[in-house]
Records
---
Amino acid sequence: MSCCLEQERHLPVTIQLQLPISSFQLHPMSVRLLTTILILITAVGAVLAVAFKKTPTQNRGIKIVTTTYPLYIFSKNIAGENADVKNLLPNGVGPHEYAPTPSDIVALAEADIVVKSGVHLDDWLTPLLDATPSKTRTIIDASEFVTLLYAEQDSPETPTGSYDPHWWLNPVNTIAAVSGIGEILTQKDPAHAELYQANAAAYQEKLKKLDDRLRVKLKDAPKNLITFHPAFIYFVGRYGLKQLAVVEPSPGKDPTPQYLAELMSVIRANKVTTIFSEPQFSPRVMEVLAKDLQLSVRTLDPLETGPDVADAYQNIMWTNAAAILDADAQ
């Protein structure tokens, strides 16, 4: 865990930026530069706005900003109604497609706690934090509480020799992260320590029951899985399965013809009958493979996006297990 601490003053200031950049034809490099400048200027405005005024939501409890969907769900379960929890990634947008908005900058400037996934998944957060300095804001790196595994696939996202960032797909890791986040919330807001501790304990109990059910359910599941991208090392490792290969080793980039040929050989050699797509990615490549090799396609969800409901983690993990067993039944 790392913390940044800074005292902020409060006076009423509002800064708005309205630049008709859509009317210009700019070189892509110029667009990126202009976007960066706008973000930084907006960040300065956000910091000044926070520094010079009392926000109308300051009595709603502690303010928490999360970088990814799983952390949002975990933090909501721990904090309950006592906190204003905001996730930076909009629903349906994964960490690979995220672009910060002015409202995100404001949220970071006002945050009491920022919870990030770590393992380089949210490195984009660093310049935003630098642009919104605060001596009272606490930064929680949830990956520091969990057991990390090395990536098995060689890709820009998780090259060989680095850790896989999808640690929450093992419920044991999630239980540990909930414990760590809960501890820091109690330190940051001791007046509500009992509430946070009770909420964290209740949520951990649900997660333990989920893990027990998954171990029983997946005991006789098919062992070799072909997944869409390298995200399920923690899940298969926990339940005695194997991520045999992936369809798209680099997020957002179609596999090369040579890679697809090798993948098809692996599928045939292991008599795989089902491949697994993901809800936030295009199924085009999966459909081509399925047609050529007469495979069925099911969905495994890495929990990068999802609904704003308390039991979302349990529901999605259970649905993933059902998809694996459904594939085996075909």
---
Amino acid sequence: MRAIPLVMLLASLACHAETPQQIRQTYVAEAAAQQPGFAPSAKRGETLFRQRFTNNDKMPACTSCHTDNPMHAGQHAVTGKAIKPLAVAANPERLSDPAKVEKWFGRNCKEVVGRACSPAEKADFLSYLSEVR
């Protein structure tokens, strides 16, 4: 009898999880409102992932903490804290919570890129992380 409420609780929590594709589609819709005809590009996402920026000497690129391969675990360049892989194939939980995705885009874009990332950049970045194997 006690198993039934637990199963119902787990099922309700699963309903609130989103897929990386659903989260990406939110950014695609925002980008399309700004740029009619916008289509996400994994290639542009990879370029953003590998690009070096000049505003932060300790973290000039996403790869500074996340390694050149998003399938691998990384380490924060300043704190040394371990970071789980970014790629969906290596870490399916990474891009399943829209609030966390937006939180980390907010923090990391400001620290690494030096500004807020656009919805188009976010959609491209998620496209890349969803496709990389």
